[in-house]
Design a protein that fits this description.
Elements (H helix, E strand, L loop, with lengths): L1 E7 L5 E4 L4 H10 L7 E4 L5 H13 L2 E5 L2 E5 L7 E2 L1 H4 L9 H8 L1 E5 L12 H9 L3 E5 L2 E5 L8 E3 L5 H12 L4 E5 L5 H12 L3 E3 L5 E5 L11 E2 L4 H14 L3 E4 L7 H9 L3 E4 L3 E5 L8 E3 L11 H8 L5 E5 L8 H8 L3 E5 L2 E5 L8 E3 L3 H13 L2 E6 L2 H4 L5 H7 L3 E6 L1
Parallel strand pairs: 2-15, 3-14, 6-7, 10-11, 18-19, 22-23
Antiparallel strand pairs: 1-23, 1-24, 3-5, 4-5, 7-9, 8-9, 11-13, 12-13, 15-17, 16-17, 19-21, 20-21
The structure holds ligand EPZ.
Amino acid sequence: MDYLQIQGPTKLSGTVTISGAKNAALPLITLTLLAHNKLTVSNMPEVVDIKTLLKLLGNLGASYTLEDHILTMDTSSVNDTMANYDIVKTMRASILVLGPLLARFGHCEVSLPGGCAIGQRPIDLHLKAMEQMGATITIHAGYVHAVAPEGLKGAHIIFDKITVTGTANVVMAAALAHGKSVLVNCAKEPEVVQLCEILRDSGIDITGIGTSELTIIGTGGKTIDMVDFEIIPDRIEAGTYLCAGAITGSTITLDKVRHDHLDAVTAKLEQMGCTIDITESTMTIHPSEKLKHVHIITQEYPAFPTDMQAQFLALATLASGTSIIEERLFENRFMHVSELQRLGADIMLNGHTATVIGETPLFGADVMATDLRASSALVLAAMAAEGTTNVHRIYHLDRGYEDLEGKLRLLGAKIERLKE
Ligand code: EPZ
């Protein structure tokens, strides 16, 4: 297995180009199952999760090419509706094939995605919505069996909780349903917004885009003529690099970024004493002389994103005073705490709240990545720590960050990928 070796403390400088958003690309790839035409998608992030989902669609019969961030996709030859365990177990976002397969073929068999490190990650809200649209759902031998022989019918669906991939799945199912669907308490993440915009641009009557209530008039089972498009920039990758500037006390610029997707993150960095200059497609962070403590509460968009919680927890270890970090979305998203403590961080965990005593010097050590965003937090802390840090199990990182060590090396970090 690979690991990253990082020398700290280090200063960074220069410009980093942000890749396309993994969490926008995943539902947009499964959306192509609703299309009868071949299409091209640009700014596709070349990360493991994307390649895993493309492999799944290939197994179903789709044909695609992915070269230099350009995806061509043709799902007209899809002739299978079983998303099997060996792929789904490696990436729970595979559940995003459920809505499209059910809507297009009237049935599908999707392996139940297990839980994951950060929480139980149920899909009950996805399934309840499909049943409301007329599907019969049974769980057997670890698989969701969904059937809707007459197709799906529009429904009035109120999500008990705000769910990002749940909203995406139901939006895609509703696009091919018979009649009107009204979806209430939808996720408003930019990734969901782009999915709705591509559906609109592909001829689907969808209103309320960007709000928590979406109204969709389905095609009654007819597949769509899907437009070519470009994936939006990855706001979490961007936020991670902003934290890289803040934690190393460096001025760096991010290119090809949507600053309007990062308002809550920018606000917290400014509360901690950093300043951020923005233009149409760039953000430049100027670090704070002395980082101030912060209070973070993770909530659904547009509030502070849970996917940036680990990175800010690492940042808070250097801030003056005591910071409070509350994780409100996932029940087990503090596994990076014990790894940060190995670097010297002084953090107290109490249920969903981490209390971080600031101004604790960090020293290099061997640490272990536990999930995607925790891994990036360890890399950030390692760049501020005195000495050598080895971050193990970085397959977690490779799932969602494109060439992290290459991009950081270009900024001046002393980081290399080695073999165990
Ligand atoms: C998406 O996961 C993201 N993944 C996650 O990013 C992100 O952390 C999460 O949204 C929250 O923003 C992708 O987009 C591929 P949810 P998702 O359904 O859709 C509960 C990363 O690092 N819930 O919005 O799976 C659930 O347990 C990943 O890139 C139900 O109870 O998250 C959680 O407490 C990690 N029943 C809350 O809702 C359901 O049926 C939010 O989950 C569905 C969700």
